[in-house]
Sequence to fold (577 residues):
Amino acid sequence: MKIVVCLKRVLDTQERVEIAPDGKRLVSTGLDYVMNTHDECAVEEAIRIKEAKGGTVTVLSLGPSGATETIREAIAMGADEGILLELEGDEEAWGPKSTASALAQALKGLEFDLVFFGLESGDGSHHQVGLAVAEALGLPAVDGVKKIDFQDGKILVRRGIELGEEVYELQPPAVLTLVDGMNRPRHPSLRGIMLAKRKEIKTVKAAPREEPLRLIQLRKPPERAGGEILGEGKGAVPKLLEKLREAGLV
Amino acid sequence: MILTFIEERKGALVDTSLEALTAGRRLARASGLPLAALLIGADLERHLPKLREFGAERAILVESDKLRAYSPAAYTKALVQAIKARSPKVVLASATALGKELLGRAAARLDLGLATGCTELSFQDGRMKITRAVWGGILFAEVELLSEPRLLTLAPHAFPAEPEPAPNNRLEVERLEVPLEEADLKLVVRELLEAVRKGVSLTEAEVVVAGGRGVGSEEGFKKLEELAALFGGAVGATRIAVNNGWRPAEEQIGQTGVRVAPKLYFACGISGAVQHMVGCKDAKIIVAINKDPQAPIFARADYGIVGDLHEVVPALIEEIKRLKGRG
Ligand SMILES: Cc1cc2nc3c(=O)[nH]c(=O)nc-3n(C[C@H](O)[C@H](O)[C@H](O)COP(=O)(O)OP(=O)(O)OC[C@H]3O[C@@H](n4cnc5c(N)ncnc54)[C@H](O)[C@@H]3O)c2cc1C
Fold:
């Protein structure tokens, strides 16, 4: 099975979420970039399939030159090859349309059975790129996959919906978008990290197209106000119960 | 025309579709455009009374036996054809698994802009103001769509579902023929596995007892389960607790998990990261139990107890049992 995983690096917002003065981006100074969480599961799943069935895993990422580090992380986990579509200029100019057309273009030059995406990116959260690539390539797609089973030469995939799960039988080539939580991504081994360091990452330049969705400004949702510290340890329990009783909860 | 895609599952309209229809009606009334509902599937006429109740003026039905089971390509074709045939100004759907998929594919096929996960919509001086959730819901973005029709998916539960019939209470029904070929039906749902309910579901529970890294182990969650059971509630977890294998992924609350809005939310051994809080900020009352008085959760909780949860939670359980025993 030849699998291409499309992935993105995103700002690690665990330390801080601060909107820049232009209102259009987050302040990134001092923050790291990490692999988008859904994409990390997609990489893990692809590697597990390779380990079980043989084949190759190629990772493809659109991003600035720094995104090679994220590609190397995937290689350290067990992917074979990495390709960077290097965007020039402002990353914010790249919306889902530009991203999908650049990725689709690159995929046309690659051999694959399956293309994996993470469900959506943790930053823009558009949930469009995987679907748009499937459309551009004229391939079947299942969106929001949480399980992939190989049974008697068939590929059965499950995706979560509001009622439960839908099961599809898939004929490659196909596109799948995968969800965080379907597996627990491994930590790269030391050997993997060494290997990834030496790996050559193929780089191709990419330019954006016009985006029909324009960002005016970002804003923070109102935060909850803090309340009352009732006390320390189990001694505070009666006081809490009194409060809950007042609220009609016990 | 404002076109709202209405989803049906197993013969019933999906609740959040009625939220989309309500939002569509508000846009229609504000802009003077007619409100149309698009249904795709089989045996759709039974839904007409509901559409009328929610103020639809036109129902566009794409019916075929071939559309009984969901097929992404065939449904996309039907939606795309309806858009081409009726040239709506706005196309709306609830951001369900199906709604996200269909509008995403239609946007690609028609090369149109799409705003996903919208939380607010309004018309101001002829311009449409759109707010959508970004960064998994920890931030909002005000955006503008430059192409027409404007395609939008609405975050579930961000809009109310309120019935209000059209002024003349008329519903025109039209059918749209969509020729389906084999290629459109290659990928079809083979099976629908309905979720088996183990007790009350996390999103519907009135009381949620959530635990984080501070719970320390899978075993440690037993006490949280016990507390939840006393309230007839459900257990939730932070990403760290899930990543450590202490709880299943379905129980993760937050940016990459589920959103809950219970009456009472216990946060036990949870630091209060924004990515977690976005999943529980709509709780009526948040109670935090954390041994670190500096933990950010205390600035977001209504009531806090500083202390070891392994002491406080059992004491809380005992006290509630005692109260219950007294009747
Ligand atoms: C893109 C992205 C998406 C994310 N999505 C989510 C998400 O959906 N949900 C989510 O939860 N997180 C999410 N996170 C992670 C989030 O940023 C935090 O890392 C996580 O919520 C922290 O979990 P925690 O509170 O259990 O652990 P910690 O932050 O480690 O906090 C543990 C707390 O327990 C307290 N404690 C320890 N022992 C005890 C004890 N015995 N008694 C009482 N208190 C004790 C400590 O004082 C501490 O405050 C996401 C992060 C990113 C970058």
